[in-house]
Specification:
Length: 709
């Protein structure tokens, strides 16, 4: 941890961008999805012999070609072909349609493994031949590759065939394809796509033919060290609100068959063109300068305030249902930006998001509420400075065009699975992995600085009811144990395991302030959870009647053995050494007297401006940094602060952010008016680096500084 730098280094333009993005997002494309698959380290076919290349090229210049898609085109992804010797014989990048061509050297040795990587997402395919031809790469071919890998991990198959090439042969591929088609039979019949060839059949990411199958499902392939856990979810609305899905392991003797599904249930799935068209329109809105987006802006280099009525650009107004931003309501807010910078889609009123781009859009599921069926899309946004993250939004199909509509909820909350690498800097024997769900409920404060909510009762998909309540100084509500005692966390942890198997006991017995279900879940219990788990929240305001809101996840919590296969951001060696030296005596970092020349900011970088963290191959780069601490001595008021960071960044600067006028952890020379810095005696003992996958799985690197529990 470096000495604080002057507040002038704040990079005002970057801060303006970062502050706008919580209510905004984007994406492009549409279709199915492959859940988080940690990458490490081509097979064509015809309907009768899957895995045998179609249209073989002449020897001495064979070309492998095909399409990588999850329903949406898997565009701009790095593709590699590895042969039986483990050598990369061809590498390229897929184009906007997900297409690729790879010329194979004359000495290429079959079988082949093809992998295509984009951030944390990976697709795999295989070929028993090196003769070239058509080879598609999809979630379905990934399942087949996982089935043939000895440990269920398609990422390890290339290494496995070096010693055992017979793992991938025509008969093995044919057998696994037939088994997969039997599993999917009800869906294939409903779509009129029985007998498809996932490897060599025609595939265009346009919502027709085989692509209709990919558009209709989400596939998760999660290796756990001995097998892969596979879940296939059909994106069809159901009468009871529960998704149609099935789960099995690659080590199972046989896979189950999908429940029955009808063509009518699938008819409302949007086409890739519809999804792509929405995000193209969103890009067109943010391509305009702020003075053209809203009529209250006086400069293209300054933020504005206003309401939905002040959004004047047709390119922006037509994004919303009825071409009217006033129809939008979500999480207690409407479109606009007030004097405190709050409001739904406040990004329309800010200059920073100008030029915001959206891609990787994906239809996830139908949202049925109040007799209205809406659609939930996932997406990625990228701003002009390179900041990027994955989000979701709700749209409605209105006359064939997708239009923004809010969730109509009165309170802000999210539910996301979270996988955690928990490092105890001063107690390394206790380093551990945890898994669970982050139930983030906004601690809304009224004009008097008091919480709006008394408590919230959260019902998990497995039936457990967990109480959450406000904690002074924290921006989120904290979970209560079964005995009604408070924790200090919003994360409901299902299980944990020490990084070092030699460490005895369980982390839950050591950490008194974080929440674990009791008893903890085993691997099989977590595997049985659904990706699209439905959560109910009952909000009890201090004044007013209870309100019920519901949420659905895009992925389940990962098992501890699945988490062990993942890669996380890590402290840079120099930063680790500096933090150890700074916390060796007290287990925390405490601020001295505020100073205008040397303000109390958190400069998370090593001496000389060096990196604070590293991102190993296969890990998601963090997009936010946060700390938690106390205003004074042990037992006093807690606080949490955070900031977004670019995914290319390896350092962060964190400034104190008061939660309300009564917040005392921040100091300002003019009370209530910034710039703010940390007050004297304020300390922190925990730091977090957060990343979020396309499946909305949060990857958390926890750095605990304390010396005892």
């Amino acid at each position: 941890m470096r000495a604080p730098r002057p507040a002038a280094s704040r990079l005002a333009s970057a801060a303006a961008l970062l502050l706008t993005l919580a209510a905004c997002g984007g994406g492009g494309g549409g279709g199915g999805g492959l859940a988080f698959l940690p990458p490490t380290g081509g097979t064509g076919g015809d309907p009768t012999t899957p895995g045998t290349p179609t249209t073989p090229e002449p020897s001495g210049g064979a070309v492998l070609r095909g399409v990588a898609a999850t329903g949406a085109a898997f565009a701009d992804a790095r593709l590699e072909v590895l042969d039986q010797r483990g050598q990369t014989v061809c590498s390229t990048v897929t184009d906007a349609a997900g297409s690729y061509d790879c010329e194979l050297p004359v000495d290429t040795a079959a079988p082949l493994v093809v992998r295509v990587l984009r951030d944390e997402q990976a697709l795999y395919s295989i070929s028993a031949s090196a003769e070239g031809g058509t080879l598609n790469i999809t979630p379905l071919t990934t399942i087949v590759a996982a089935q043939l890998a000895p440990d269920g991990n398609p990422a390890s198959l290339a290494q496995a065939i070096q010693s055992n090439p017979d793992l991938v042969n025509d008969d093995a591929i044919r057998s696994e394809v037939q088994a997969l088609l039997a599993t999917l039979e009800p869906l294939l019949q409903a779509l009129g796509q029985a007998g498809i060839d996932p490897f060599g059949g025609p595939l265009v990411a346009d919502g027709t033919g085989q692509d209709r199958v990919l558009d209709a499902i989400t596939v998760s392939v999660r290796p756990d060290g001995t097998a892969a856990n596979i879940e296939i979810t059909v994106k069809a609305p159901s009468a009871d609100g529960q998704p149609v899905s099935l789960s099995y392991r690659t080590s199972d003797e046989a896979a189950p068959v999908l429940p029955a599904v009808t063509a009518d249930q699938l008819s409302a799935i949007p086409t890739p063109a519809q999804v792509a068209g929405f995000f193209q329109r969103l890009d067109a809105c943010f391509a305009l300068p702020v003075t053209q987006r809203v009529d209250t802006a006086t400069s293209d280099d300054a933020d504005a305030t206003g309401t939905a009525a002040n959004v004047t650009a047709p390119a922006c107004r037509t994004l919303f249902v009825d071409d009217d931003p006033a129809t939008y309501a979500a999480n207690g807010g409407t479109v606009g930006r007030n004097a405190q910078g709050r409001g739904a889609w406040s990004s329309l009123f800010r200059f920073g998001p100008t030029g915001l781009r959206h891609d990787r859009g994906n239809f996830e599921f139908f949202r049925v509420q109040g007799g209205q069926t809406d659609l939930v899309l996932s997406y990625r946004w990228t701003d002009r400075l390179g900041n990027t993250d994955n989000e979701t939004l709700v749209v409605r199909n209105q006359d064939g065009a997708l239009k923004l509509t809010g969730n109509s909820y009165g309170y802000g909350a999210t539910v996301r699975p979270v996988s955690e690498d928990r490092e105890y800097l001063n107690m390394p024997a206790y380093n551990a992995f945890t898994t669970g769900y982050n139930i983030s409920i906004d601690n809304r404060i009224n004009g008097s600085g008091q919480p709006v909510l008394s408590h919230v009762l959260v019902t998990a998909p497995w039936g457990q009811v967990i109480k959450f309540s406000p904690e002074s100084g924290l921006s989120y509500l904290v979970a209560h144990r079964a005995d009604d005692s408070r924790t200090v966390t919003s994360i409901v942890r299902l299980a944990t395991g020490y990084a070092d198997p030699a460490t005895a006991g369980n982390l839950a017995d050591e950490e008194p302030n974080i929440f674990f279900v009791d008893p903890q879940y085993g691997e099989a219990q977590i595997r049985a959870l659904k990706d699209q788990g439905v959560w109910k929240m009952e909000f009890f305001p201090v004044a007013g009647s209870p309100v019920v809101q519901s949420y659905r996840t895009l992925a389940r919590a990962q098992t501890i053995n699945e988490v062990r296969q993942l890669k996380f951001a890590q402290l840079a060696p120099a930063q680790r050494a500096e933090l150890l030296a700074a916390t060796a005596a007290t287990g925390r970092i405490t601020f001295g007297a505020p100073s205008d020349s040397d303000p109390n900011n958190i400069d998370f970088s090593s001496e000389g401006g060096g990196d604070a963290w590293t991102v190993p191959a296969g890990a998601l780069a963090p997009t936010s940094f946060s700390v938690t601490g106390r205003v004074g001595a042990q037992g006093s008021q807690r606080f949490n602060d955070g900031t977004l960071v670019r995914n290319t960044a390896r350092t962060a600067m964190l400034y104190c952010s008061p939660q309300s006028a009564a917040d005392v952890h921040c100091y300002s020379a003019v009370p209530g008016v910034g710039p703010f810095q940390y007050a004297q005696g304020v300390s922190f003992n925990s730091m977090e680096l957060w990343a979020r996958s396309a499946r909305q799985v949060e990857m958390k690197k926890q750095i605990a500084l304390y010396k005892s529990f």
